[in-house]
Amino acid sequence: MGETPIPHENIVKEEEIMTGSWAINEFFIGCIVIMIVPLAVYIYREMTAVKEGDTSDI
Amino acid sequence: MIFNWIVFILAAAGMIGVGVWSNKKIKSQANHGGEGFLLGGKQIGAFVGAGTLMATGYSGWGFIGSPGTAYAFGSIEVLANFFFAPAIVFGTLFFANFMRKNAEKSGGLTVPEYLASTHRGTDGQKRLVHFFAGLATFIFLSVYMIGQIRAVGLVASQWLDIPEVYASILLITVVAIFTIMGGLLAVALTDTIMCVGMLIASVIVFGVILQDVSLTEMIRTVGQMNSELVNPTTSAPYGNTRYSVYLVFVYALLFTTTLPYMSVRFLSLKEDIKIHKMALYMAPMGIILSLIPFVGMYMFYKDPTLANPDSAMPVFLNTFLSPALGGIITLFILFAMLSTISSILQALASSLSYDMYMSLGKKKEIKSDFINRLVVGLTALWGLFLTFVAPQGMLNQIAYIGTGGLISMFVGPIIMRTIVEADLKTCFLSMVTGFLVNVVLVLGFDVGWVEAPIIAGLAGSVVYVTMGFATNSWRRVAAVE
């Protein structure tokens, strides 16, 4: 009937994973995002340019 | 000390050399109407564009102030300082082309002129907006420059062992010389050299920390001493809730796209530049420059009893690095400060020599760069004069009104123009609204320096969009008359 309660010690707080600090965790997540977004835009733009025949950068 | 003087003289000679080279470059291209001096002959490519934007955005005082804040408030500063990186990268990636293409279509060598030329209206209205935006830039950036010059004087006086007054005069003279000679091109090139120095400094500093202790061990130990420094429950000093820190990203995004000494770079980029390539250079630069606040946490880990948090970086340099390496890093910190000052000086001088002079004198263009160059020199003297006569107190608050005021004024006409193509009356009213709301929030309601320009910019934007659509018969673009 009732769900088995999760023991308190089994609940992992956000700050306990990765570096142990939520702010530093978000810093590293931000570092990944800031690299991925320009890289994705770069690949997309360059592939579009190749399709359109602009190969000046290759 | 002699070693520091030799390094300084070599660095100063190098920067002045860049000024001389830039002067030849812009003269050889026979640009007229100030484009060569004010916009570097639109010769700024992807790498230099990335370097100048990152060096200017990451103000040099951040190398001292940010570790100090991290010492006092912990990991929240690491995150807050980092937000400038994605803001500058994404602001450039998604906005630079819009502004650059508009400037090419309508004209505009400075941000105030860009505002006047990209909105429709009578010649008188154009001159009013051009003058008003130029005046605001001059006043607000003058105030902002005071703090920057004082910071340079403070660091350089200790480094060269001379009084602060002489240190300020010496360094501002070097900046003025290369800016007078080479204009924005010299500023952008020296910024890029300085940015490389700042990157090297960040890598060395972070490497020294990691040689001593792993990041997780440092965080764990600091957390045991004061858990609030590692897992803060508020965003102090940026706000009262845990999530207030994210407003720093919004602030930095507006800072990148609207402050004249940042966004003028978008107008100076090469016609065939690939912005996405530039953003790809900027991203790792931003990450590396964001490592600096870790010095504050490391100093707390080593010695939690420092009386003055702002001494975290100087104490780190003196204690954990050899005198020669510490001296080189201090030079790079000075570089970071000078890159911001040279950019402000250039924007400040152009607001006076180009924007106000042109709009008052009904001149179409300045035939010679002579006035632009002369005013850079006069503006440097003006900055030094203000630095020594301005009172010490209230400077932070005035500086926040300075940058915050400009951001509040320019958010509507610059960013909201992507939504509606408004006229000059709307542009003017939006600027006045943003300015007044910011002043009332800061002085009347004691709203923080991050929130105030965001709220005031929002107010100016609401006015811009509403009035813009209303005057366009509720269309995005006005019908052709």
Structure overview:
- Chain A is mainly α and 58 residues long.
- In chain A, 52% of the residues lie in helices and 0% in strands.
- Chain A has one helix spanning 22-51.
- Chain B starts with a helix and ends in a 10-residue tail after the last helix.
- Chain B is built from 21 helices and no strands.
- With 481 residues, chain B is an all-alpha fold.
- Chain B has 2 domains: 2-390, Sodium/glucose cotransporter (Up-down Bundle); 393-481, no CATH class.
- The longest helix of chain B is centred in the middle third of the chain and has 49 residues, at 164-212.
- Chain A binds chain B through residues 15, 19-24, 26-27, 30-31, 33-35, 37-39, 41-42, 45-46, 57, and chain B through 74-76, 78-79, 82-83, 85-86, 89-90, 93, 215-216, 219-220, 223, 230-232, 245, 274, 276-277, 279-280, 282-284, 286-287, 290.
What is the overall number of helices of chain A? Answer: 1
Q: What distance separates the N and C termini of chain A?
A: 66 Å
The best one-word shape of chain B is globular
Would you list the SSEs of chain A in sequence order as H and E?
H
- Biggest interface, chains and residue tallies: A-B, 22 and 32 residues
Low-confidence runs of chain B = none
Helix percentage of chain B: over 70%
The total count of strands of chain B amounts to: 0
- The SS-based structural class of chain B is mainly alpha
Oligomer class:
heterodimer
